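Onboarding guide, step 5: your first structure request.
Type a short instruction followed by the sequence, for example:

Predict the 3D structure of this protein.
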Amino acid sequence: MIPAPRPRARIRLRPTPGGVAGWLYLAWCAVFVAAPILVVCASALNGGRSMLFPPQDPTLDRFVEFFVTDEVWTRALRLSAIIAVSSAALATALAWPVAYGLWRGASRLSKALGAGLAMPFALPPIVFGVGLGFLWVFAGLIGTVEAAILSHAALHAALPLATISIGLQSVERAHLDAAATLGATERVIFRTIILPQTIPYTASGFFFALVLSFNEFIVTFFVSASAYSTVTLQIFNSLRNGFTPTMAVGAIAFILTSVLAFGLVARFGDLPRLMGADPARR
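The system replies with structure tokens like these:
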């Protein structure tokens, strides 16, 4: 007769003072970070023209103005989207061949190009913005949207360069050797092995560059020469008339753009590794 198994003893973990203090500290940090965001979001609901908290006469009219009816804000939003998408695509296109060259052979040319793409992001934005201002004045492009797109692409190309490089490093060399042994050409290997495995990292770099471009102010301020206004510039210009609820809607647009972009990266990419986590310890 087989004896019945003994019931397992339940292990009760008692919270330690250090553990409770750690959770309280994390909760305080969460409140400290989230409180300003909640205040801004609530201030956008004010019915008047003043940004007050708690909001008075709550309404969604400011959202309608920002996204639909107010030509100044809708033009700024449209221009910000054009510059962000175009510059992010250009930055990704510039970063791909450089990252691929560094991964394949790391020649002097590829190292120099990689350093050139990474340098603008390491410089203080005001230094880079002043330099670009002089450059576009000399080239006759100051105050044009094209200059803003090129400037943002140069500033943020380091982001897709980093993410694509991480993606290329994750490609198994054994797969490439096996494909070459079976007679696959370099083009076939790139199309069937390398490109599919690096698409999430390429998209991550694109979204990182897009978010930073959408929020960029200093470089845009220098290269625009007051010829046009993006959302960031329009918020700055609106400060002359005081804090208005429409400015809070602009801040919410920045938050939504960041949440959407990073949510897509977390869903389809390897966000912990892109943030610097060691894959061997996960």
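Each response can be followed by summary notes, for example: The longest helix spans residues 71-104.
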